Amino acid sequence: MGPSSCLLLILIPILQLMTPGSTQCSLDSVMDKKIKDVLGSLEFSSSPITKKLSCISVNSRGRLSSCPAGMTVTGCACGYGCGSWDVQLETTCHCQCSVVDWTTARCCHLA
Asked: Could you tell me if 108 and 54 are in contact, meaning their C-beta atoms sit under 8 angstroms apart?
């Protein structure tokens, strides 16, 4: 085998490495195109339905405080530092301490 044949055997793998693109890159580009095609085919409504969370606080004397119709309790607060409360029927705050002078219900609904 002559020197030119050896040079060719060395140059061929080097030239293959220098060619632009590889199997991995072309696979990535194919996957990117597929993803873009799928995302592009999804239909988006021009006027998306948006809802707004609307909340109020209802203060009452005593151990119970109820939300107006159509609203749900999202939190409660009790007077005299009472931290023990529960929600009854999703609309009423009930403070569980024996001495409570006020109760507040945080009431919310989606509008």
From this structure: yes
